[in-house]
Amino acid sequence: MSRPRTLVGCLLGLAGTACASLHVGESEPGVARATLIADPAFNAGLPVTVVLRKVDSVAAGPFESRASLSPGPHRVIVDCAVAGTPAKARFVLDMDAEPGARYRLDAALAPGNQHCDDVRITPH
Question: Would you say residue 39 has pLDDT above 90?
């Protein structure tokens, strides 16, 4: 295989693993699962990142930036960081996942944009 094709294959492979999904909870057959979207832990210099750490008792791996959730209540643990600063903040969030819904983790920065003030789960 040529070098450019090998490089493209590797990059596509990395892109796919950066979006791996964490599977949490069991759903009844025919009931749609909810999706929770975070930022990839390994990224191309995003100014603010909200990284998924754990949902309920299931820890997220370094390449899991999404969670496929059974409908119902869940506890989500995330880390939020601002590029260029040493500060990282951990947040514990409670949510009630609706069947088939898509959610996104969104950071709210403190005045001065030096650290995360809050993280919210918003419909996506």
Answer: yes
